[in-house]
Amino acid sequence: MVLAFLVVVYTYLGLAAALSKEGWRTQSIYQLLTDRYARTNGSEAPCDDLGIYCGGTWRGIIDKLDYIQDMGFTAIWISPITAQIPGLTYEGTAYHGFWPQQINQVNPNFGTPEDLLALSGALHDRGMYLMVDTVSNDMAWNGNYTTVDFSIFDVFNEANYYHSYCPVTNYQNATQATQCWTGDQHITLPDLATENTVVIDKWQTWVANYTSYYGIDGIRLDACLEQDMEFFPYFEKSAGVYVMCEVYNYPIDGVCAYQEYVSGLLNFPVWYLITDAFGSISGSMSNLYDGLTEVQGNCTDVSLLGNFVENHDVDRLPYTVSDIGLDQNAIAFVMVNDGIPIIYAGEEQHYSGGAPPANRETTWTSGYNTSTVYYQLIKQLNEFRTCVISKDDTY
Ligand SMILES: *[C@@H]1O[C@H](CO)[C@@H](O)[C@H](O)[C@H]1NC(C)=O
Ligand SMILES: *[C@@H]1O[C@H](CO)[C@@H](O)[C@H](O)[C@H]1NC(C)=O
Ligand SMILES: *[C@@H]1O[C@H](CO)[C@@H](O)[C@H](O)[C@H]1NC(C)=O
Ligand SMILES: *[C@@H]1O[C@H](CO)[C@@H](O)[C@H](O)[C@H]1NC(C)=O
Ligand SMILES: *[C@@H]1O[C@H](CO)[C@@H](O)[C@H](O)[C@H]1NC(C)=O
Ligand SMILES: *[C@@H]1O[C@H](CO)[C@@H](O)[C@H](O)[C@H]1NC(C)=O
């Protein structure tokens, strides 16, 4: 109740209030890929190649905020904003935003700094919040590890900010995952030494300005399994906002261990359980129940976990599940489970792409139809959740 009141006051005064972890508990997040969401000129022409830029921009998103807000979402999670490997590579272009090079410049394909500020302002004017996907594990180089020129990176511009080269071959080995390099022989991801105090200090200075300058209310942090755990408290403290870490493909207790260092986590443990329980008519509800109990037993605070059934890295559920009853139950589960619900753009249009980039469809192809069964289902579930949590005074 108190929070809801404060939100109204802040909105009324037009102030951009950075959102604490407590504030994020009551939000409902819509994840979108900036390049795939909406074009500045509103063109809904198809994109022929999902491996390269399709033309989505921050200005385009501003024009679609009614569509998002009317579905009941209070926050959006957008792609990384930083300048990337330019041009076409052997693996397509950096349309996804996970190949950073100049972290003090924005990706010109998505717009100008003024456009990003306009998006942040437009969200805050509506009482909505901005979460930005952020990469702190590495920089990106178009070529193999023998050819990296560190001087082109604009903050971490010397080799001594990075671990020396070794490839990660086993992500379950924490030493290797945190100290070796990811990427491959075409796109190399030089691995920042996030345990090094100079690197930590530079990230702290950068992130404090990043959140305040652009009015960023929350951060989705990429590749946390590949970074030193002790880095996260420093990063989150300087960010001054809720940070939600990605720890993919790891056991429940291993994932939950990260919550000792960072406020939020993507709920990958429960994602595996959901895809199992709702992936077929023989899916096991008792496994889901037992798994939820294990997550509750291991994680510090399940109300700060981000629940999802789809995202840009995994197959969409309808890729393998044609039974819409199962699929709609999976969405309903995500919307009412303890934690923060996250719906990935396209779920409301029953998109069905498999492995990337097929699961990174352009949203404009749907015509942003608000009459679809899925759009209306998600809208009703958001209304239901808002109603339930507004009656709980502990928030
Ligand atoms: C709209 O913008 C795209 C680039 O994003 C461009 O290819 C297209 O020609 C433009 N369409 C119109 C009608 O201006
Ligand atoms: C903060 O970030 C903005 C945008 O990247 C940049 O223009 C500005 O110079 C930065 N300010 C400081 C103090 O670093
Ligand atoms: C790295 O790339 C360079 C230039 O393309 C090539 O000459 C070299 O053989 C490559 N090395 C490895 C280890 O792939
Ligand atoms: C983990 O990886 C490190 C670095 O590659 C290696 O030295 C170590 O033997 C590995 N540990 C296990 C248990 O495989
Ligand atoms: C923590 O998770 C592990 C599986 O990763 C499980 O075996 C254990 O029972 C859980 N602990 C609690 C207290 O639930
Ligand atoms: C929008 O979706 C509804 C329900 O599926 C359908 O009847 C309608 O034709 C769609 N509208 C457009 C413009 O495609």
TrEMBL record:
| Disulfide cysteine pairs (residue numbers) | C47-C54, C166-C180, C256-C299
Query: GO molecular-function annotation terms?
Result: alpha-amylase activity; calcium ion binding
What GO terms in the biological process aspect are recorded for it? carbohydrate metabolic process
Query: According to UniProt, where does the site described as Transition state stabilizer lie?
Result: D313
| Alphabetically ordered keywords of this record | Calcium, Carbohydrate metabolism, Disulfide bond, Glycosidase, Hydrolase, Metal-binding, Signal
Catalyzed reactions per annotation: Endohydrolysis of (1->4)-alpha-D-glucosidic linkages in polysaccharides containing three or more (1->4)-alpha-linked D-glucose units
Stored Gene3D superfamilies = Glycosidases (3.20.20.80)
Alphabetical list of SUPFAM superfamilies matching this protein? (Trans)glycosidases (SSF51445)
Catalytic residues (UniProt): D222 (nucleophile), E246 (proton donor)
Q: Which cofactor does it need?
A: Ca(2+)
| Entry's transmembrane regions | none
Where substrate binds, per the record, is at W99, R220, D313, R360
**Annotated Pfam families:** Alpha-amylase (PF00128)
First and last residue of the signal peptide = 1-18
Q: Which InterPro entries match?
A: A-amylase-like, GH, GH13_cat_dom
Residue intervals of the Glycosyl hydrolase family 13 catalytic domain: 31-385
**What family does the Swiss-Prot or TrEMBL record give for this protein?**
Belongs to the glycosyl hydrolase 13 family.
Q: Identify this protein by name.
A: alpha-amylase
The organism is Imshaugia aleurites
